[in-house]
Amino acid sequence: MLKIYGFARVNRVARGNTRDLRVLWALEEMGLPHEIVGMDHPNHDLDSPSYRALNPFGQIPAIDDDGVVVTESGAILLYLARKSGKLLPRDLAGEAQVLRWTVAALNTIEMPVLSLWFVNLSGGKGTRPSEALRTWADMRLKQLDGWLADRQFIATDDFTVADILMTHVLDSGSTDQALLEPYANVLAYRARCTGRPAWKKTLDAYCERVEAA
Ligand SMILES: N[C@@H](CCC(=O)N[C@@H](CS)C(=O)NCC(=O)O)C(=O)O
């Protein structure tokens, strides 16, 4: 049975934002049977030698599919898409678009918005580095908005794993939501993706399962 390592306890602020949700959403969309292994972060489950053997960075998410261990949310989603034959085109050209937008979500978009959040959280709000990061993040979101002007989904005509990643990055508590306000296409895209029944089901089950930290 495919095991997914996810959080068993999540504080109020992080609830809904943890990256195990990317995998759980994909599994729900794909209809793949799985078992959730709940990890207690405040009690240092992620520091145990057995978990570090799975993920040297000691982070969630990780999967163990009968001995195939994969970490990094993007890599896990691409693996599951290949395994299930869902949310990824089978032709090379289509697959390349999904790879392209997977990397864009986790690098071109997540990197500046997450860095901005981290700098501000660390007391850097109002500083020049913070302002520079804000300008960088805003530029990328504006460019993303242009790309989405005449598209339903980010990589192909159909919903793919790249949409799960991009949506979760945009929706994250680590993304300053004020940054998105000027960008109607980005907001409409995010609403289109989070409106999917599989996301609602995944989030409801997660909120019911995880305990407060
Ligand atoms: N690049 C990784 C990042 C994973 C990550 O940041 N996980 C967070 C939870 S959302 C975590 O495990 N944090 C606990 C820690 O770093 O100690 C991915 O996309 O999977």
Describe the structure.
The structure is a single chain. The chain is an alpha/beta fold and 213 residues long. It has helices at residues 20-30, 49-54, 73-84, 92-124, 128-147, 161-171, 184-194, 197-209; strands spanning 2-7, 9-10, 35-39, 62-65, 68-71, 211-212. A four-stranded mixed beta sheet has the order 3-1-4-5, with helices on one face. Strands 2-6 form a two-stranded parallel sheet. A hairpin with a 2-residue loop joins strand 4 and strand 5. Helix 1 (20-30) packs parallel to helix 3 (73-84) and helix 1 (20-30) packs across helix 8 (197-209). The two termini are 28 Å apart. The model has no long low-confidence stretch (mean pLDDT 97). Bound molecules: glutathione (GSH). The site of glutathione has 9 residues, from loops.
List keywords for this structure.
single chain, 213 residues, alpha/beta, four-stranded mixed beta sheet, two-stranded parallel sheet, 8 helices, 6 strands, globular, binds glutathione
Can you list the strand order of the major beta sheet? 3-1-4-5
| SSE pattern | EEHEHEEHHHHHHE
The kinds of small molecule bound in this structure are: glutathione
Average residue pLDDT: 97
- Given the C-alpha coordinates, what overall shape results? globular
**In this structure, how is the largest beta sheet organized?**
4 strands, mixed
* Spans where pLDDT lies below 50 across 5 or more residues: none
Strand content: 5-15%
Radius of gyration: 17 Å
Structural class: alpha/beta
Number of strands: 6
Question: What is the percent of helical residues?
Answer: 40-55%
